[in-house]
Amino acid sequence: xxxxxxxxxxxxxxxxxxxxxxxxxxxxxxxxxxxxxxxxxxxxxxxxxxxxxxxxxxxxxxxxxxxxxxxxxxxxxxxxxxxxxxxxxxxxxxxxxxxxxxxxxxxxxxxxxxxxxxxxxxxxxxxxxxxxxxxxxxxxxxxxxxxxxxxxxxxxxxxxxxxxxxxxxxxxxxxxxxxxxxxxxxxxxxxxxxxxxxxxxxxxxxxxxxxxxxxxxxxxxxxxxxxxxxxxxxxxxxxxxxxxxxxxxxxxxxxxxxxxxxxxxxxxxxxxxxxxxxxxxxxxxxxxxxxxxxxxxxxxxxxxxxxxxxxxxxxxxxxxxxxxxxxxxxxxxxxxxxxxxxxxxxxxxxxxxxxxxxxxxxxxxxxxxxxxxxxxxxxxxxxxxxxx
Length: 388
Known about the structure:
By secondary structure, the protein is α+β, with helices and mostly antiparallel strands. The chain folds into 2 domains: 18-156 and 305-387, no CATH class; 162-259, no CATH class. The protein is 61% helix and 18% strand. The protein has a 6-stranded antiparallel sheet with strand order 1-2-3-4-5-6. Strand 4 (213-223) and strand 5 form a beta hairpin. The longest helix is centred in the N-terminal third of the chain and has 41 residues, at 18-58. The model has no long low-confidence stretch (mean pLDDT 82).
């Protein structure tokens, strides 16, 4: 690169002041310390004790134990990132305040609003990292950890089994006044899913005027090549408009062009922590036809939380840098304690908002973002008080 080209490239680089670079470099060590501390604590309390209990009670092998522990680490790292933002900003600004460096900055006209800018920018960076980590690493690791544990405890088939699978498929009718109305097009029922096929199926069909077809079969299996259901050993009853049977036919194998959704409904019955945003939206589409409002509300809240949760890093960054601006110096132990207190308060609010969102008291969007809104208001008020 020639000197002229380098000068041109350097011109477009963000111009970071000495103060910002200095504060940013001071923020990194306590942030990394927080990630390590909170992650270790989370893994030990959240997973380690339970796995040790299973080693004692179920004879779980040490190899499986360490594999599951490793697979659980990403989830707790994702939890630790916001908490470390709080701890890092609190410790850094407290150290700067204790050494009178903040007083020196304010004495030359730098406002407290300007001083906390590096912390807020770092928080946005951690927010993006948390979101990407939660999307591309955590769900896959959680799912693999659950599958590994299930296989070790010989519960793989149990995880894939299901009973009383009901899938109502809805269609739309155009009325004479031009409006559209939803109606029950088809009802799929299977007494059980054994991990390979549906058993004891009954299908009711209203796709034409009124109930026009009833199909029962001993079993049914999804045909991947043809994207249809293969039904085995059953009977189809065609219903005439006067509700009498117009035709009854026995079959050994029948190809039925039905939706794959009943199978998706069983296979995707997994914890929302094991799904990323797109998988959760896909799962919502499947369960929306079931009209199970409780389950639909629950997954809608979780979808909004997947977007809202990473932004808690910004809230914690603002609160931590503002609390650290107090005149007295705060030690590591005190900072850790204050961080835990703030985190516990936030998560208590987070759970309350989740519950009221899942029971329909507030819309899912509001339930997911309320903790962040409260946190931002609290952080803004603290900052305003500190600036006076």
